[in-house]
Amino acid sequence: MAEDSSVNQGKQGKNAPSGPRILLFGAAGQLGVELQSAFAASGCMTAVDHSSGDLANPDQLRALVRSVQPEVILNAAAYTAVDRAESEPERAHTINAEGPRVLAEEALKLNALLVYYSTDYVFDGMKSGPWTETDAPNPLNIYGASKLAGERATQNAGGRSLIFRTSWVYGPHGKNFLLTMLRLARERDRLSIVDDQIGAPTTSIELARATHAVVSGVLAGRFGTAQEWVGLYHMTCAGSTSWFGFAQAIFARASKALGVKVPELASIATASYPTPAARPRNSVLSNEKLRNIFAVQLAPWESALDEVIGLLRDSSGPSAS
Q1: Is residue 65 part of a domain?
Q2: What is the CATH number of the domain that holds 168?
């Protein structure tokens, strides 16, 4: 999530926003960009990218945390190349598990609140209904296994941590399914899209808003002591669809709002689109625990998509592909 080179040091001095010191990893990624916006008025943020906050460099991580002395650490950085991870398992594990372990250890020393983002890919997709936090993980690919290891490393540190599992993340920035569809529509007349994998498309905007709502409530003491809220939560937009259904919804909106030429869409089975990494057939996550503990609920995926398409329209087109 943090491939570009940008570092944003939080404002200092009399104009600095009141609130906690926040250290954000993955500043240039699609979620990192939205987290900076969501937390803009909530504290003094230091936002770092890969060059200055490399999860594969434990010494750099420790030095950075000890220098900033954050009260909140938001880890939106990750190795997210799902297929490439099959040939780079050590790198995926280092970034998605070892880096988070170091951050969890440093957060514990500071009694800082740590947020770690995980994935629906920790599950094998064999369940017929939505996955809950108590369901046993069984990742099908290296990426999912590395993120599960990151979850466990974060939990095992024993600090004040929140782990948010999410799915099918996209938004107006970065590289994601939505922007890829819009690019391919300009290049091709026909697209074949997998129709037998289901999940909840979740915008980086909704993720950032929900994270802010939970973190601000925790810091204000609205949810009780740490023992009452520390742990693992699912955090996705409401509802579900297939990748094919998602593509249909994208083009139904983009044709009107962005003037995008709609290609012919063909639904195909996973077996017709082999990839190095296996994907779960059912990635739908239950958000009941998030609602029960924090009274937080993300928007339905369709209305969240409306918002992103509107932002792309207002900015005269997608920002990346």
Answers
A1: yes
A2: 3.40.50.720
Overall number of domains in the chain: 1
Query: In this structure, are residues 137 and 168 in contact, taking their beta carbons and an 8 Å threshold?
Result: no
SS3 category, 268: strand
The residues, any chain, with a CB within 8 Å of residue 252's CB and separated by 6 or more, are: none
Decide if 22 is inside a domain: yes
The pTM for the full model equals: 0.91
Question: Looking at the domain assignment, is residue 7 inside a domain?
Answer: no
| Residue 304 token pair | 């969240």
The pLDDT score that the predictor gives to residue 12 is 40
How far, in Å, CA of 240 to CA of 283, rounded? 9
The catalytic residue positions are 143
Report CA-CA distances (Å) from 239 to 117, 170, 314: 20, 16, 26
> Could you report the per-residue pLDDT of 209-267, keeping only the tens digit for each?
999 999 999 999 999 999 999 999 999 999 999 999 999 999 999 999 998 999 999 99
Encoded tokens for 46: 């230091």
Please give the mean pLDDT across all residues of the chain.
Answer: 91
Q: Which domain holds residue 258?
A: 13-314
Q: What local confidence, expressed as pLDDT, does residue 174 receive?
A: 85
